[in-house]
Write a structure and sequence with these properties.
Length: 487
């Protein structure tokens, strides 16, 4: 199946037929947008948390903003709610600019992870609180409280102390309080994160039903990909303050646009490959038939194989790939096995049949189960300044380079180096610069790491050494690998 070129920061992150009424990154002539997030960026001091985010949300949609911790999703929600101001860009609601409108004047309400209920008030009083402040008449308040109690499934709980309720019931009270004013948009910030697994699953179903019954727009923030896949009409995947992909849950799962999305949504095997020609891709030393086309001959690509799409069987002579099971875990419905191929690749495979550790197996992958993506990058390119003929300043450090005869000291230059040319060391060891491991992609026989230098730039490193997310590292590059050209 073909995957679109990756668009980490480009304009077009979306691949959706224009007639599908869901959130999108680019505006069409459709007038049904309730929310327009228009080129929003946000800085906290020196730190950029949102980078040119544009998103158009249609009336009645259930949109989930999904991404790892720190990717900026809560900040985006707080900007929508009016609790934070964007540094750049605008927020529009029903076509009007609401960027400067205070939270309480926006026809939207927020449900937080922490329920923030009043412990000294019972369920009824918690829900009625806002209306009483507005001095609405008692009969009207009573009608409205009973209406929302029914929606959240808490009829008969009105006299209960909120402290006596379970976490799920307390969250229902919080939702009732948020919807009593009939907001046009309900913002939900990880509302189920504090609940146990069983309660979370039940509440997911109930939230979906509430969304249907209320008919209003839900904008939901979570880092839980399963929750996003279950609940949403549209998922917006974010990383490092940028939108990576927008799509229906099935689009995001089946056609991730880049390795980050493929890795973040569901389990995947992501491998380096070469697109030999249309419908022919080489990886794991085997040429596979695939359904992809539109690549350059011999283009280096990323190949995604979902664990459930690899067929595993006892070893046989006609198989594409042979290997041995190195781990096997029962996951409730299926078994998850790690297979090390005879040529040294490690693959995760899910199957209803169990193959024991040590068993010799064969693997088959069907053409339509191979997902090919254009490579995001082929080497590192960073901005630098030549300090003297043999030193260049980049990534917040001074790196040695081969003598530069034609470039004057002080000149802005561009430096290129390969993923294999970087050596990572412990932070305290000597490296020309320092940074933090910020993303790890396992590619079957090596790791492809993103390292964010302390000066804020990302570089990419291939290594067979095991590092953890968040590890602080020293960065070393051999002088002969530092390729310099004038900026
Ligand atoms: P999480 O799920 O962990 O809350 P998130 O994706 O919702 O992550 P945000 O809460 O939006 O991320 O935070 C993004 C980044 O912005 C983080 O590095 C966070 O520390 C930083 N940040 C958020 N609010 C502020 C603030 N008021 N001042 C300074 N930095 C902030």
């Amino acid at each position: 199946m073909s995957l679109s070129p990756k668009p980490i920061s480009g304009e077009d992150c979306t691949r959706r037929a224009p007639d599908i009424p869901l959130a999108d990154k680019r505006k069409s002539n459709d007038k049904a947008y309730i929310i327009e997030i228009d080129h929003v960026s946000k800085w906290f001091g020196e730190k950029q948390v949102l980078d040119d985010v544009s998103l158009f949300i249609r009336k009645g949609e259930f949109v989930t903003i999904l991404g790892p911790s720190g990717c900026g999703k809560t900040t985006l929600l707080r900007i929508l709610a009016g609790f934070n101001m964007p540094t750049d860009g605008r927020v529009l609601m029903n076509g009007s600019d609401i960027t400067d409108v205070p939270p309480f004047e926006r026809p939207m309400n927020t449900v937080f992870q922490r329920y923030a209920l009043f412990p000294h008030l019972n369920v009824y009083e918690n829900i009625a609180f806002g209306l009483k402040l507005k001095k609405e008449d008692e009969d009207s308040i009573d009608r409205q409280v009973r209406r929302v109690l029914k929606i959240v499934g808490l009829t008969d709980y009105e006299e209960r102390d909120v402290d006596s309720l379970s976490g799920g019931q307390q969250q229902r009270v919080a939702i009732a309080r948020a919807i009593i004013n009939r907001p046009q948009v309900l913002l939900l910030d990880e509302p189920l994160a504090a609940l146990d697994l069983k309660m979370r699953k039940d509440m997911q179903m109930e939230l979906k039903q509430m969304h249907k019954d209320l008919g209003i727009t839900f904008i939901y923030v979570t880092h839980d990909q399963e929750e996003a896949l279950t609940l949403s009409d549209t998922i917006v995947v974010m990383n490092k303050g940028r939108i990576q992909q927008i799509g229906r849950p099935t689009d995001i799962y089946n056609e991730p646009v880049n390795p980050f999305v493929a890795d973040f949504i569901g389990d995947s095997n992501i491998l380096n490959g070469i697109m030999v020609e249309d419908h022919k891709v080489l990886f794991m030393y085997h040429e596979f038939e695939c359904v992809d086309e539109g690549f350059q001959p011999n283009e280096h690509v990323d190949v995604v194989l979902r664990p459930e799409d690899i067929y595993i069987m006892a070893r046989n002579a006609n198989a594409m790939i042979n290997g041995k099971v190195s781990a096997c875990i029962f996951k409730g419905v299926h078994y998850e096995m790690t297979v090390v191929t005879d040529r040294g690749y490690e693959l995760i495979i899910q199957d209803y049949n169990m193959f024991e550790v040590g068993q010799e197996v064969s693997l088959i992958i069907k053409p339509s189960d191979i997902h090919v993506m254009h490579r995001e990058r082929f080497s590192n390119t960073v901005k630098a300044v030549l300090k003297d003929s043999t030193h260049v300043e980049m990534l917040g450090g001074i790196f040695e380079c081969e003598p530069q005869e034609d470039i004057e000291a002080g000149t802005d230059v561009t430096v290129n180096f390969g993923f294999d040319d970087v050596e990572l060391m412990d932070y305290s060891d000597e490296g020309a610069a320092t940074g933090t491991v910020s993303f790890i992609l396992y590619k079957g026989n090596h790791y492809h790491l993103t390292v964010t230098s302390d000066s804020g730039e990302d570089i990419f490193v291939n290594t067979s050494e095991v590092w953890d997310d968040g590890d602080m590292v020293g960065i070393k590059i051999l002088p002969q690998a530092v390729k310099i050209s004038k900026a």
